Every structure is written in structure tokens, then in C-alpha cells.
């Protein structure tokens, strides 16, 4: 994975709470056997009409959304199915961070494995971001801060290990493979 | 000094710590049983191949196919190819991966195939005290026997294949204490829907739930599985129920449960698993089972649920709520009862076990489904299908006018050819009423098998007690 130190971008906002992974990527697109190319199906049922033409009013289809790397969403984003296709689709589309007041457990874990920064902030900060779509903000992984256009830096929680992996672009699998002798000891004991 | 009292979860977690978590590092948690299926495993095998890794413990891994597989007999057993090309490719790829990496596969025509969360317990592989994972969020089902079971992403599927371990932060504990008797016509599905309504769809985030109390103790194993299955719909990755005599009776003699002396040893260990008196939970919630009514969802997440005799709530100024009702074509304040229904789906890892089929068949016996309504009955496994057929349940469904299929996830998630049409209302015994879950534009009302059967007979949302 690419190291992830900081990211500056304008935001795209989806204000609804409880956006589930079936919305992020509907199940009919899970018949793929690779990770690539899922971005075109991101939010498929919100983004396209049944005949496949884009819905002009959907936020990702507006010109100002072009090039935005940060998605701001309502509470409990990524709930439901464990499908990793959700962060794959978000990352393939071009997002590198998701901000909410609360992210579902499995989704959050899946994001971290795909270089997609999961950011949970306090209620007032998220409300401000939702009211100001397109706001230019900066996420600093080392400092664990979200810097708003006012210059105010809002802290977000990130576990030490996740931060370590993001900053160095480390793969958790390498870490687990290095623990082999401990795993063998455990297996002998069990 | 006496050991501090521990919860069931604490005991299972600690027994599987290869190394405990610290401020800097997550725990390395050992996994006893890894279930895999065709949809969330191909990319994990690809990583093993890219990196020249093997499967560390093939004997702890079991594969089956359920999500994208067809349920029409001709497509499963031959005569007609699988209609969806992509599904055919996924089935083939799992066959190739399992052969190459030495993983046991209960393939498309295997007599023990079925929905992954139905066959684990059915085979007796799902056992108390085990850690069980699968690339599927309804892995929480297996917690019904007192296992710690949770869904993982595909990258983690790769981690378990390669190392039999996962990096995990220890979750917090939430006790859901349920007391009192469930009334006639009220099932385990209604109970878990009421619990989700109470907790909300993110109320369990970061927690493992333990379902406790005399109501839970009185549930049979299949009912307990229905309850634990939907833990994830409250945001909890896992739900657990302490093992007891009901659990042991269910497991004894199952093909992959321990036998003879090994059974006795296992039993002794399992008896030590239940939560100690005075053990601390991070949170506790109480629920009166006697107050639970048959429940039905009206919105686009499982927390949007009401008693079937109730009215759709009013919440002015809540845009997401308004959007959900617009999608559902329902209005605040109106009763849900008597709303027309187009499709009834009896199936899924939540409610496709033998007792679920029996409960629906009991209500359907000697009746017909409403004209114009489509009812799909999809047993949870090939074993459930054979048992149901031995009891003549298939005849009951067919004579009522329903379709009787081969096992699989089917209409629960609309990726295998079984879908609900745009704008149609489906009363489903599955677990998710998300927008488009059962097909683009499909509108799902979640309910129990009993309620689903009653809705099928009337062609309208119906309280099953009216037909009992």
C-alpha cells in the first residue's frame, strides 16, 4: 500500500444516516472475482436511472464533485454487509477518506486495509461539514487532525497501530506472517 | 487470589489470544473455524497466489457456495447451465481455489451444501467456545451455541487463510437481558426485531452482545440462531448465547461434533463457558418478552420496525426518514396492516431452518396463497430440504401455490437471479430491508415465517394470530 500521511481535498457530502454497504455497492455487482473496476458501480442505484443514464441531481454526478477525494456522510456510514467491495468501490472511484460521526465496525476495518482513511469526528464538526459541501479540508494522519477552512484543527481518533500502518504503507499480513513462531507456540499449547 | 468474574465473551477471547492487545498493537486472535464462500473469497486466494502463500490450516477451513448460486433445480443439478455468467465463473473459481489450496468444498451438487450459517451448526462444526469467522456479516449466527463468531472482510479472509489469525481490538460487551414468556404467535424473529428496534441499527457498534435471561434460555437452538443472526443489524459484530443442555442436546451425534471420550472432554470444557455470576458488562439492556408483538419493518433499515398492529411513526424534519418512507411508498401515521403484498420470501440464514419451514407450513396447510402473489420457499440447506420433504412440507407449500427451491441465499440479496421487482412489496423472513437489497427498487418488509405465511394467504400485511 501507498503510505498515507496527509490529504487535502474538497468534500462531497451524503447527509443521510445509516448508509449501508448495499447502497455503496449493490449485491448484483459482487459477482466479480477481482478488486478492480468497482468504482463505476459505486452508489449505482442512486447514481444512475434504471436505464443506466446518470441522475443529474445525485451529488457524484455534479461537476463540483469532480476530483473530490473526501466523502462526508451521516452517522453510521457503512453498516450492514461485510463486503469489502464497498471500500474497493470507494477507493476505485477516487475517494481516500470517509468522514462521519460514526462508522460501522467491519466497514472501518475494511477501509484501513485499503488505504481509505476512516475518520470519525464530533457531532458539531460533522454537522458543519454537512452544511458546507465542497469545503476544502486537510486530514493529517500523523497529528490525527482534520483542519477546517477556518484553520481550526479538529482531532479524530485513530489507533496507534492503524496510524503506524497508514504512515508507512504497511500491510497487516506481513505483520501477521512475522508472528509465526508465536502462532506455532499457541497451536502447541492449545 | 480468586480469578475475577468473566463473561462468556471474555473467556472465549482470552483462550484465543496468541498475543493480547496493548496500547500500540491489536491482539493476535487465533481462529478455530474459517468458513468461506464464492463471493468474498476469490480476491483472498488471489493474494495468496501473488505472494506464494499456502493455506495454513486447511483442516480448519470449510468452503461452500450459497450467495450467487441459483436455486432452480435444473441449474443446480444439471440440464440447464447457471443462467448468470458471473455466478458460473464464481462457482468455478471456488472449485479451482479449493482444489489448488487443499480446502474441503461442499460444492454445488453436494448433499451437505447450504447457506454457510445453516450448515455450520447442522454439521456440528459450530461448537461452544470456538472462534469462527467468515467473509459474511451474518456469521454472528454461530454465536447461538456460545461461540465467538463474526464477519470479516476479504483482506481478513486472506489473513486467516495464510496465518489462521486475525488482528483485532477487543470489543466491549453488551448484555441484552430478556425475561418473560413470548406470547402465542410471537417468535424469535419478532424478539430480535424488537431488540433491534430498541437498540437502533448502530446501538451495538463496537460491542459483542450476550443474549441472556429466562426467555433466551427457553429458546430452542434454531430460535437462538435467528436471534444471534441479526446481531449485526444492531451494529454488533457478534451475538452470543451461553451453552446449556439445549445446546448439548442439539450438537450431540452431529457428524462433525466430537464423539465418545472427546465428547465428554468437550462437554466438561463447555460447561465452564457461561458468564460468571457478578461478571461485568460494559452495558446492559432489559427487555420484557411478554410485551413483544409480531413485528414488521416499514422502512429501509431493520431498526425501522413496529408491532404489526401499529402505525408508521411520524418524524418531521428527519430527511432520511422521509426519504425511506418515500422509497417504501408509505406515509407516516398510516397503519401497516392490510397493505398489499406482491411477494413473500421464506428463506435466508435468518429463517430457513426446519422449524421455520414447519411454522409457515402449519399456517399454510389446507390454504392457498392469494391470487397474483408470488411466494418463494428456499430451504437453508440441502439437508433441511430433504428433511422438509420427508415431512411433506414441500407438498404443503406447492399445494398452497408457492415455489419450492434448492437451498441458497436466494432472494435475500438479489444477486443470484431471484429478485423482487421494482416497486413491488415483499414480506421477507430475511434480515435486511435496505433499499434495493432484494432487487433494484424492491420494497422489503421483514417479518417472521409465521407472519410471512399469513401475509401470503391474505395478500396483505396480516397479523398471523388472525389465522391461527
Give a description of the structure:
The complex is a heterodimer of chains A (190) and B (468). Chain A has 190 residues and is α/β, with parallel strands linked by helices. Chain A has a single domain (6-189), classed as Aconitase, domain 4, CATH 3.20.19.10. Chain A has eight helices and seven strands. A seven-stranded mixed beta sheet of chain A has the order 4-3-2-1-5-6-7. In chain A, strand 3 (97-100), helix 4 (105-112) and strand 4 form a beta-alpha-beta unit. The relative contact order of chain A is 0.18. The mean pLDDT of chain A is 96. Chain B is an alpha/beta fold and 468 residues long. Chain B folds into two domains: 8-168, Aconitase, domain 3; 296-466, Aconitase, domain 3. Helix content of chain B is 32%, strand content 16%. Chain B has helices at residues 8-15, 42-51, 73-77, 85-101, 116-123, 154-163, 188-199, 214-218, 221-229, 245-251, 260-270, 319-328, 354-364, 382-390, 393-400, 449-458; strands at residues 17-19, 27-30, 33-36, 61-64, 104-106, 131-134, 148-151, 165-168, 172-179, 207-212, 238-240, 283-288, 295-297, 305-307, 343-346, 374-377, 403-404, 425-428, 443-446. In chain B, the strands form five sheets. Chain B has a five-stranded parallel beta sheet. In chain B, strands 17-16-15-18-19 form a five-stranded parallel beta sheet, with helices on one face. In chain B, a hairpin with a 7-residue loop joins strand 1 (17-19) and strand 2. The radius of gyration of chain B is 21 Å and the shape is globular. The interface between A and B is large, with 52 and 66 residues.
Amino acid at each position: 500500500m501507498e503510505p498515507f500521511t496527509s490529504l487535502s481535498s474538497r468534500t462531497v457530502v451524503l447527509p443521510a444516516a445509516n448508509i449501508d454497504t448495499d447502497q455503496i455497492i449493490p449485491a448484483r455487482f459482487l459477482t466479480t472475482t477481482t478488486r478492480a473496476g468497482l468504482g463505476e458501480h459505486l452508489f449505482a442505484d442512486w447514481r444512475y436511472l434504471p436505464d443506466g443514464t446518470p441522475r443529474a441531481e445525485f451529488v457524484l454526478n455534479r461537476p463540483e464533485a469532480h476530483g473530490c477525494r473526501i466523502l462526508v456522510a451521516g452517522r453510521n456510514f457503512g453498516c450492514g454487509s461485510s463486503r469489502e467491495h464497498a471500500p474497493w468501490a470507494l477507493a476505485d472511484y477516487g475517494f481516500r477518506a470517509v468522514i462521519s460521526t460514526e462508522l460501522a465496525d467491519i466497514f472501518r476495518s475494511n477501509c484501513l486495509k485499503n488505504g481509505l482513511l476512516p475518520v470519525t469526528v464530533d457531532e458539531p464538526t460533522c454537522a458543519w461539514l454537512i452544511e458546507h459541501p465542497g469545503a476544502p479540508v486537510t486530514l493529517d494522519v500523523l497529528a490525527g487532525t482534520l483542519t477546517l477552512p477556518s484553520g481550526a484543527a479538529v482531532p479524530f481518533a485513530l489507533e496507534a497501530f492503524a496510524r503506524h500502518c497508514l504512515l508507512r504503507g504497511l500491510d497487516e499480513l506481513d505483520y501477521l506472517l512475522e508472528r509465526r513462531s508465536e502462532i506455532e507456540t499457541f497451536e502447541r499449547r492449545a | 487470589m480468586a480469578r475475577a468474574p468473566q463473561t462468556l465473551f471474555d473467556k472465549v477471547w482470552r483462550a484465543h489470544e496468541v498475543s493480547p492487545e496493548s496500547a500500540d498493537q491489536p491482539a493476535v486472535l487465533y481462529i478455530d473455524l474459517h468458513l468461506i464462500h464464492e463471493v468474498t473469497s476469490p480476491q483472498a486466494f488471489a493474494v495468496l497466489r501473488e505472494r506464494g502463500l499456502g493455506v495454513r490450516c486447511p483442516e480448519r477451513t470449510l468452503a461452500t457456495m450459497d450467495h450467487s448460486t441459483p436455486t432452480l433445480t435444473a441449474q443446480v443439478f444439471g440440464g440447464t447451465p447457471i443462467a448468470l455468467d458471473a455466478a458460473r465463473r464464481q462457482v468455478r473459481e471456488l472449485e479451482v481455489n479449493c482444489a489448488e489450496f487443499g480446502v474441503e468444498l461442499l460444492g454445488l451438487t453436494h448433499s451437505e451444501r447450504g447457506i454457510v450459517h445453516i450448515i455450520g451448526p447442522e454439521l456440528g462444526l459450530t461448537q461452544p467456545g470456538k472462534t469462527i469467522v467468515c467473509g459474511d456479516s451474518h456469521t454472528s449466527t454461530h454465536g447461538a451455541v456460545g461461540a465467538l463468531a463474526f464477519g470479516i472482510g476479504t483482506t481478513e479472509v486472506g489473513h486467516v487463510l495464510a496465518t489462521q489469525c486475525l488482528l483485532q481490538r477487543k470489543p466491549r460487551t453488551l448484555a441484552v437481558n430478556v425475561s418473560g414468556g413470548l406470547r402465542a404467535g410471537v417468535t424469535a424473529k419478532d424478539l430480535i426485531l424488537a431488540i433491534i428496534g430498541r437498540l437502533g441499527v448502530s446501538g451495538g457498534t463496537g460491542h459483542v452482545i450476550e443474549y441472556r435471561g429466562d426467555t433466551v434460555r427457553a429458546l430452542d437452538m434454531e430460535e437462538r440462531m435467528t436471534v444471534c443472526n441479526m446481531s449485526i443489524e444492531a451494529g454488533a459484530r457478534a451475538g452470543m448465547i451461553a451453552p446449556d443442555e439445549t445446546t448439548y442436546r442439539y450438537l450431540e451425534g452431529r457428524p462433525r461434533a466430537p464423539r465418545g471420550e472427546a465428547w465428554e472432554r468437550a462437554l466438561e470444557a463447555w460447561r465452564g463457558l457461561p458468564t460468571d455470576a457478578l461478571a461485568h458488562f460494559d452495558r446492559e439492556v432489559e427487555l420484557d418478552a411478554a410485551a413483544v408483538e409480531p413485528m414488521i419493518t416499514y422502512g429501509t433499515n431493520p431498526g425501522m420496525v413496529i408491532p404489526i398492529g401499529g402505525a408508521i411513526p411520524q418524524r418531521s424534519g428527519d430527511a432520511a426518514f422521509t426519504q425511506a418512507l418515500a422509497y417504501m411508498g408509505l406515509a407516516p401515521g398510516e397503519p401497516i396492516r392490510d397493505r398489499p403484498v406482491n411477494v413473500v420470501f421464506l428463506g435466508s440464514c435468518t429463517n430457513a431452518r426446519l422449524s421455520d419451514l414447519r411454522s409457515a407450513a402449519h399456517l399454510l396447510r389446507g390454504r392457498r396463497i392469494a391470487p397474483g402473489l408470488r411466494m418463494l420457499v428456499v430451504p437453508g440447506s440441502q439437508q433441511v430440504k430433504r428433511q422438509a420433504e420427508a415431512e411433506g412440507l414441500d407438498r404443503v407449500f406447492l399445494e398452497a401455490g408457492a415455489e419450492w427451491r434448492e437451498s441458497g441465499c436466494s432472494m435475500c440479496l438479489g444477486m443470484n437471479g431471484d429478485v423482487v421487482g421494482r416497486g413491488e412489496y415483499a414480506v421477507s423472513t430475511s434480515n435486511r430491508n435496505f433499499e434495493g437489497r432484494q432487487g433494484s427498487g424492491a420494497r422489503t418488509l421483514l417479518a417472521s415465517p409465521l407472519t410471512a405465511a399469513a401475509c401470503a394467504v391474505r395478500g396483505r400485511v396480516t397479523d398471523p394470530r388472525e389465522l391461527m
